[in-house]
Design goal:
Blueprint lengths: L1 H20 L2 E7 L6 H16 L4 E6 L7 H10 L4 E5 H5 L17 H21 L2 E16 L6 H5 L2 E4 L3 H9 L3 E4 L2 H10 L4 E4 L1 H6 L8 E3 L4 E10 H4 L4 H35 L3 E3 L3 H18 L6 H17 L25
Parallel strand pairs: 1-2, 1-3, 5-6, 8-10
Antiparallel strand pairs: 3-9, 4-7, 4-8, 4-9
Helix pairs in contact: 2-11, 5-13, 7-12
Length: about 350
């Protein structure tokens, strides 16, 4: 019996050593297509993580929606079938919808405002996500979201004639409802075919997204006024995080903080380059009528009120507005950068949209 006990202890030690020595593979899903700047940034970070942890932690990405859509990602993480996912704000909202307070339509004038407010709010949301069993990583982004269409849209009447793609998220659904717009709920993977078939004839996207997902080839016009700024992040199961040693996790956190800041710069430049590419490919920039800008802006304010107490709390909205106003007070002469998309080289520059 004594010999058996010693044998079991030795076997236990060997098994423990094997688990410690073996590389921990983190399975991460994303909708980002292979070959895009988003995947390039993720793959670069994965290589650095493996190098810095001396192979103890490896990250395997499943790009291009191989694991389904973002709803599938969140469900599979909860079931332990995935360790994490790089998702947009819509995926984040499936974990804790209050984070949508950072993506209200027409909330920010430029990226500097966004960076300031999100930087102040991110630790708050990280704590909220932990209570849901998820670790919220550093902030990523999609970029400014514009309206793309097959038909020229200048007025609200023009807009109400369109069949718009929409995701089943609270802020966009509420905005479309309030303005009596026709939304067609679809998954991201369904949009391309829906544009081709005519099931929808208008969509929302960042310039980079329109190119990466090939939507640009099915539309003709891009509205110059951005609707909102779309962000995202990589989330991990708290259970998956426990499998990584504190020392390795600290190294990964340091890398993530540095890499995401660089990645945001890369994505912003890529979106600017994508705008130029869209114009070269024949997309026409359309300046909306003042009436359309005013109605969209008024509807955005109304959406804030309607979502308060349902999607996010009054306290959370107040926090965001307080930080935004702090930034504006410190930077009174900062000119809006994202009020209008730059016009193509052959056309005169579009004036900023009035707030």
């Amino acid at each position: 019996m004594a010999g058996m006990r010693i044998g079991l202890v030795v076997l236990g030690c060997l098994l423990a050593f094997t688990r410690f020595a073996a590389a921990e593979e983190m399975r991460i899903a994303t909708l980002a297509p292979s070959g895009t700047p988003w995947m390039a940034a993720l793959e670069k970070a994965a290589a650095e993580i493996e190098n810095k942890t001396e192979g103890r932690v490896k990250v395997k990405y499943f790009p291009g929606g191989q694991q389904g859509d973002e709803r599938d990602f969140v469900r599979k993480i909860r079931l332990g079938q995935l360790d994490g996912a790089a998702i947009t704000s819509m995926g984040l909202a499936m974990i804790d919808q209050s984070i949508l307070v950072l993506q209200l339509p027409r909330l920010f004038e430029d990226e500097n405002e966004l960076d300031y407010v999100a930087g102040k709010m991110w630790p708050y949301f990280q704590k909220k996500f932990e209570k849901q069993g998820f670790r919220l990583g550093e902030r990523g982004e999609v970029g400014w979201i514009y309206f793309f269409s097959k038909n020229k849209v200048v007025t609200m009447d023009d807009l109400r004639q369109q069949k718009l793609w929409t995701m089943a998220d609270a802020d966009m659904a509420t905005l479309l409802d309030r303005m009596k717009l026709r939304g067609v709920p679809l998954g991201i993977a369904e949009v391309d075919a829906a544009l081709a078939s005519g099931r929808i004839n208008a969509t929302f996207s960042s310039p980079l997204g329109a190119i990466a997902l090939q939507w640009y080839s099915k539309v003709k016009y891009m509205n110059s006024m951005p609707i909102t700024f779309a962000m995202g992040a990589t989330v991990y199961s708290m259970e998956a995080q426990k499998r990584i040693s504190p020392a390795d996790q600290k190294e990964i956190d340091t890398l993530a903080k540095r890499n995401q800041k660089k990645a945001r710069t890369v994505i912003r430049k890529a979106n600017e380059d994508a705008k130029k590419m869209l114009f070269k490919k024949g997309i026409t920039l359309v300046e909306p009528a003042k009436e359309m800008v005013d109605e969209l802006t008024a509807a955005s304010v109304a959406v804030q009120k309607e979502m308060t107490g349902k999607v996010f709390s009054q306290e959370e909205l107040d926090m965001v507005l307080k930080h935004r106003d702090e930034y504006r007070a410190k930077n009174p002469k900062a000119a809006p950068k994202a009020a209008a998309a730059p016009a193509p080289a052959a056309a005169p520059a579009a004036p900023p949209a009035k707030k």
